[in-house]
C-alpha cells in the first residue's frame, strides 16, 4: 500500500517565495518583449497603438470627454473601452510620456508613433505597474500570513497559495498575447486570414 501525500502539509518558505516571484516577473518581461499585433500596419497599428493613443487622449482631453466622440476624441480610432480606473492609469503614464517624449502623445500628430525608446517606455510602464500592484498584493498576503501563523511554524504559504500567485502572474502574461490577437482582429487591424493563420 502506498502513502498518499497531503497537499495541506506541503508548504513553501519565504526563501522559495521570493525566487518564485522573481521568476514569474522574468517570464512577464520576456513575454512583454515579444512583438505585438499590428506592428507598422496602418491604419490602426495594433494594441501598442491603442495603449499609446489612450495616453494621448487622456492627456489632451478633459476626463468628462474620454468616453464621448468629439473633435479631439475619435472613438472609431482606438476609443477608450476600459473602465475609468484604467483611463486614469493611462493618464498617469501619459503625463510621464509627455514629460519624457512629448511627440509620443501629441494629439493627432502621434498616430502610429513607434520609436524604440517609446516602446521601451511602454514595456517599463507595464512591468513597473505589475511590480507595484501585484507584488504589493503578494507582500501584503505574506505579512498577513506571517502575522496569523503559529509562532513555531516557519512556513508562510501552502503549496496551493504559492502556486496560485505564480500561476496568476504567468497566465496573465500568456493571455495578454492571446488577447492582443483577438483585440487586433476585433479592431480590424488583422484580416480573417491573418487571424486564422496565427491560430
Automatic annotation (TrEMBL):
Top-level EC class: transferase
The primary location reported for this protein is: endoplasmic reticulum
| Pathway connected to this protein | Protein modification; protein glycosylation
Please name the Pfam families in this protein's record.
Alg6_Alg8
Q: Report the membrane topology from the UniProt record.
A: Multi-pass membrane protein
Q: Give the source's domain of life in one word.
A: Eukaryota
Gene3D superfamilies reported for this sequence: BolA-like (3.30.300.90)
Where would you find this protein in the cell?
Endoplasmic reticulum membrane
**Transmembrane region(s):** 121-143
EC number per UniProt: 2.4.1.-
Q: Name the keywords, alphabetized.
A: Endoplasmic reticulum, Glycosyltransferase, Membrane, Transferase, Transmembrane, Transmembrane helix
InterPro entries given in the database record: BolA-like_sf (IPR036065), Glyco_trans_ALG6/ALG8 (IPR004856)
> Hey, which family's this protein in?
Belongs to the ALG6/ALG8 glucosyltransferase family.
Please name the PANTHER family in this protein's record. DOLICHYL GLYCOSYLTRANSFERASE, DOLICHYL PYROPHOSPHATE MAN9GLCNAC2 ALPHA-1,3-GLUCOSYLTRANSFERASE
Q: What is this protein called?
A: Alpha-1,3-glucosyltransferase
Amino acid at each position: 500500500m502506498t502513502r498518499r501525500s497531503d497537499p495541506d502539509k506541503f508548504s513553501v518558505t519565504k526563501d522559495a517565495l521570493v525566487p518564485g516571484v522573481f521568476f514569474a516577473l522574468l517570464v512577464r518581461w520576456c513575454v512583454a518583449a515579444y512583438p505585438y499585433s499590428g506592428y507598422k500596419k496602418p491604419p490602426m497599428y495594433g494594441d501598442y497603438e491603442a495603449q499609446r493613443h489612450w495616453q494621448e487622449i487622456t492627456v489632451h482631453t478633459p476626463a468628462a470627454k474620454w468616453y464621448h466622440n468629439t473633435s479631439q476624441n475619435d472613438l472609431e480610432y482606438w476609443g477608450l473601452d476600459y473602465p475609468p480606473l484604467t483611463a486614469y492609469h493611462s493618464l498617469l503614464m501619459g503625463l510621464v510620456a509627455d514629460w519624457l517624449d512629448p511627440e509620443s502623445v501629441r494629439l493627432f500628430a502621434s498616430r502610429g508613433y513607434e520609436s524604440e525608446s517609446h516602446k521601451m517606455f511602454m514595456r517599463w510602464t507595464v512591468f513597473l505597474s505589475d511590480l507595484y500592484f501585484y507584488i504589493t498584493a503578494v507582500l501584503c498576503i505574506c505579512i498577513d500570513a506571517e502575522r496569523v501563523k503559529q509562532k513555531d511554524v516557519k512556513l508562510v504559504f501552502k503549496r496551493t497559495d504559492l502556486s496560485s500567485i505564480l500561476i496568476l502572474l504567468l497566465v496573465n502574461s500568456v493571455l495578454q498575447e492571446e488577447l492582443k490577437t483577438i483585440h487586433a482582429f476585433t479592431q480590424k487591424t488583422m484580416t480573417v486570414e491573418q487571424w486564422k493563420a496565427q491560430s
